[in-house]
Amino acid sequence: MNDAAHRSDAATMTAPVLLPRRIGPSELRVFPIALSGTVFGWTADGPTTTGILDRFSELGGTFIDTADSYAGGRSEIMIGNWMHERRNRDALTIATKVGKGADHPGLSAPAIRSAVEASLRRLRVDHIDLLFLHIDDPSVAFDETLLAVDELIRAGHVRYFGGSDHTGERLFEARIASGQLGVAHMVALQKHYNLVHRDEYEGDLARVSGQLDLAVLPRFALAAGFLTGKYRSRSDLERERRGAEASRYLNRRGLRILGALDRVALETHSSVATVALSWLLSRPRVVAPVVSVSSPTQLDVVMAAPLTPLSRHHLTELDRISDD
Questions:
Q1: DSSP-derived 3-state class of residue 263
Q2: If 0-12 CB within 10 Å is exposed, 13-18 middle and 19+ buried, where does residue 16 land?
Q3: Do residues 314 and 290 lie in contact, with contact meaning Cβ atoms separated by under 8 Å?
Q4: Between residues 45 and 323, which one has the greater pLDDT?
Q5: Which domain, by its residues, includes 189?
Q6: Taking Cα atoms as reference points, which of 305, 230, 307, 295 lies closest to residue 43?
Q7: Count of the separate structural domains present in the chain
Q8: String of DSSP letters for 145-195
Q9: pTM
C-alpha cells in the first residue's frame, strides 16, 4: 500500500469507542464488554472464577451478566461472594435473567417474584441493575409479567429490564402493553448475534430494536470460541470441550470468515477475537457484546476490542464475506 492510500484508509478509521456506553434510554453506563457468568460454577471452579473476575475488573470491566439458571444458581453465588469480598458492588452493573431456573420456571408473577428474591440472596445485593426475561413465555399474558416486573422496579429490587428470546412482534406487543398499563418498558435486548450468525438478529429484530430504542447486547459473541480462531479442523474440535458447539461453523463459509479475520488482525496488529468483537461493536445499537472466557488471560484480547477501531475498508470486507 502506498503512502497516499495509507493516509486515505487511515482517514476512514472509525473513532475510538467512547467509554462507557449507555444502555438504551436507561441511566446505566457500562464498559462495552459484558462478562458472561455462564461458565462460573460449571467449567470454571472457584479460584478460576475469582481470577477471571479480578482480571476483568483490572482491565476496566464494569458489566457482569449471569442468570439464575447458570450452574443451578452457583454462578450468581460466586459472583456475589466475589463482590462481597472485593467490596466493589457500587462500581459494577449486574445483569441476571429469570425464566429458565429449575426452582422458579416461567414468567408468571409468582415465578418472577420468587426468582428475583432468590437471585438477590445469591448475589448478596439489594437490587439488580438489569433483569432479563430469559424466555418468551406465551402461556402467561404480557400484562401479568410486566406488572410483576414493574412491582419489583417500584420496590427498588430491579432498576431496568429487557428481553432475551423475543421476536420483533412480541417486543412490540410488550411495548404496547407497557404503555397501556403505564408501567416500565424494556430498555435492552440480549440476542444471539455474531459475525457467523447474523440472520437471526439482522432484519426484523434490528429494525424493531431501533424503533423501540433498545440497547443490543449480543450473546454468543465469539460463536462458542469459533471466532477466536482456535477451531480450524476437526481435530481442533475434538480437543476442546466446547468444540461441539463450534462445529456448526466449521465449513467453507466459516473458514472464509476466519481468513478475513486473520487478514484484518494482521493489519491492525491485534487478534482474531479482538477483531470479531470490534466488528460487533461497530453495529448499530450494539452496546456491549456478552463474552464468556475460561481463563483470566483470555480477557486481554477481549477487552482490547473497544480500543481497536476498524477502518471502513476492514468493516466492508467483513460485512461482505459474512453476509451470505
A1: helix
A2: exposed
A3: no
A4: 45
A5: 19-224+277-299
A6: 295
A7: 1
A8: HHHHHHHHHHTTSEEEEEESS--HHHHHHHHHHHHHHT-----EEEEE-BT
A9: 0.92
